[in-house]
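Late entry, written up from scratch paper. The run itself happened at the end of the previous shift, but nothing got recorded in the book at the time, so transcribing now.
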Amino acid sequence: MEEKEKIIKYLERARRATRSDIARGTGLSYWRVLILVDELVKEGAIECVEVGKKRTKYFRLPLEQGLIRNS
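Output as recorded:
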């Protein structure tokens, strides 16, 4: 499975995750996830959401895409 596919599949299950969560969940290195997540965001395949006072960055599938996949 391609690395970007692994990330998307992980986010389908997890709903939202930090880069560290994605690295642990996919077995990819944190640094590889850092690059791939940025590429996926630029491609519009996933989106970044900042949460809380610390502005923690979570990544998830775009809402429209998530709704389509879950139906």
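Residues 36 and 42 are 10 Å apart (CA to CA).
(Scratch paper discarded after transcription.)
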